[in-house]
Amino acid sequence: MVVMSELPYAAGLAPRPPDGSRGAGWVVFGAGGHARSVVDVLERLGESVVAVVGDPGDCEWHVEVLEDEDSAIERVVTEGLQAVVAIGAPEPRLALLARLGEVAPAVVAAAATVSPRAVLGPGTVVLEHAHVGPSARLGVGVIVNTGAVVEHDCVVGDGAHIAPGAALLGAARVGDGTFVGSGARVLPGIELGVGVTVGAGSVVTWGVPDGNTVVGVPARLATSRRAEDVHP
Questions:
Q1: CATH number given to 114-232
Q2: Is residue 161 annotated as part of the catalytic site, yes or no?
Q3: Extents of the domains making up the chain
Q4: Which pLDDT value is given to residue 220?
Q5: What is the pTM of this model?
């Protein structure tokens, strides 16, 4: 996990430079359904979205669609724009954030609540009606999706995705690239390893080692590995 600076998150968008050198508009990297939600978040905040970047597939857009990532990054730099990465898969999301650097701040939706004592890493996005509690620490490029809850003292690793309606209860810990499915619950103090997948609606009551998939209430392994090898 990338070590973040000890700066709390102030409600709203990440602060812009005092000289106004950035903030004239946003470029959203991604052109699918998740990008549509992120564009909506920005526009609800009164921000101008200049373009989305990627293959739109069946999505119809009301803003310019750019297909070349390199030229889009150059445009962000030369025009003094800000960027947000709206790609669901963690590996390409983090790789692109590494290229963009400081022009991709954390973004929080207007209807979300984030404690001023929480810490959000660069490129993290908190969508509408989500909540991030006090002393929670979120890494780089985390997605806290619509209506999800990250309670007090939680730690969420780089590239993790907390899906719509999911909840991490107090002091839960989630490793890099882990996906917590829609409506799932991770009980207080429980730790999920790197690259874990939690099925929708599951309730996790035990620590899950790296790379495992768990499903059910209470959650059990969904892989071929014997449960007694990892479950106490």
A1: 2.160.10.10
A2: no
A3: 26-105, 114-232
A4: 96
A5: 0.88
